[in-house]
Design a protein that fits this description.
374 residues, alpha/beta, TIM Barrel, eight-stranded parallel barrel
Length: 374
């Protein structure tokens, strides 16, 4: 038995407006493609229920596609529209609440990452044979103003439906090279209208989404917004190269109604800008005053992605030094919440084992773990 972390800040309750959490641990969204017919089923219910009963503070679901014809990019991904899918999510929500947990769906539109012929909307034009659109390579179809209005409405309707069936918050996926991020990123946003231009102008689409959601769900329903510097297409990409640029990027989103920022990095301990040890979440909180979620290889001893080969590598055990740094950063008020991804995918009891110092009971993280159903 290693020293328990039960008194650590990570395991203390927190209230963020109407969102009351039993600890600071957030299950990060992870696509699993285990929803045949795009409907959450009993396996989905059991998967989230097990994490809730094992004391995850807030669960953010896998990306769930909004009701727009081009939103989906992968087979067997759950939708957040239609009576059957919403009924499936209602079962998930009820199961999580019965175990004392809180849950938010991640609302998702893949944009030009969508490959041709993806069900169920096979007639929607394809965008890129590889599923990735890179700067300098022609690909994708520029959205008309009507397209933009339709997507904004689809996000707003998904949020309203999520609130109606009992979710505790929603998260907008604005990261990792998907649709919202494609508008942020200069390399993929070459528009010459009001949705293109400088960094602030490129936030317009996201701000319209957030504003429409806020109008639909009212003032007290939490809106989480996930963003990243890196993209699937380019791990070194950056939206903001300085704190000043990051400030300019974040202010319109705050004004639109974001309550919590989910700041996606690959390693939480890495400083975001020279001259400061603050990571992306730390800078975001400093600049906005909003609560933030940090994320990035928490609890792993090796990187999930090899930067040179862009390939999967094994990571085993618990990086106890990273928990020491995590605790220090939380005590310094750098961030309120910590997103955990792969460790919770592999072990639904991870939170309790870490809290109680039962590190010897943790299984090695491996590629095989990704196939675990529940």
């Amino acid at each position: 038995m290693t020293q328990a972390l039960s008194n650590a800040a990570l395991f203390q309750p927190i209230e963020l407006g109407p969102l009351s959490l039993r600890n600071r641990i957030v299950m990060a969204p992870m696509t699993r493609t285990f929803s045949p017919g795009n409907v959450p089923n009993d396996l989905n219910v059991a998967y989230y229920e097990r994490r809730a009963e094992n004391e995850v503070g807030l669960i953010i679901t896998e990306g769930t596609c909004i009701g727009h014809k081009a939103a989906n990019g992968y087979a067997r991904v759950p939708f957040i529209y239609g009576e059957e899918a919403l009924a499936g999510w209602k079962k998930v929500v009820d199961a999580v609440h019965a175990k004392g947990g809180k849950i938010a769906p991640q609302l998702w539109h893949v944009g030009s990452i969508r490959k041709e012929g993806v069900e169920p909307d096979v007639s929607v034009p394809g965008y890129s044979p590889s599923g990735l659109v890179r700067p300098g390579k022609e690909g994708g179809i520029a959205m008309t103003k009507q397209d933009i209005d339709d997507v904004v409405e689809a996000f707003a309707q998904a949020a309203a439906d999520s609130q109606r069936i009992g979710f505790d918050a929603i998260e907008v996926h604005g990261a990792h090279g998907y649709l919202v991020d494609q508008f942020f990123w200069e390399g993929t946003n070459q528009r010459e209208d009001e949705y293109g231009g400088d960094l602030v102008a490129r936030t317009r689409f996201a701000c319209e989404i957030v504003s429409a959601i806020r109008e639909r769900v009212g003032p007290d329903f939490p809106i989480i917004f996930r963003f990243s510097q890196w993209k699937q297409q380019d791990y070194s990409a950056r939206l903001a190269n300085t704190p000043e640029e990051l400030d300019a990027f974040l202010k319109p989103l705050v004004n639109a109604g974001v309550d919590i920022f989910h700041c996606s990095t690959r390693r939480f301990w890495e400083p975001e800008f020279e001259g400061s040890d603050l990571n992306l979440a730390g800078w975001t909180k400093k600049l906005t005053g909003k609560p933030v979620i940090t994320v990035g290889s928490v609890g792993l001893t090796a990187s999930f992605i090899d930067e040179e080969k862009h390939d999967m590598v094994d990571a085993s055990g618990v990086a106890t030094a990273s928990f020491t740094e995590l605790e220090q950063r939380m005590n310094n008020d750098e961030f309120e919440l910590v997103g955990i991804g792969r460790a919770l995918l592999q072990d639904p009891e991870w939170v309790i084992k870490i809290r109680e110092g039962r590190y010897d009971e943790l299984e090695d993280y491996s590629k095989q773990s990704l196939m675990q159903l529940v």
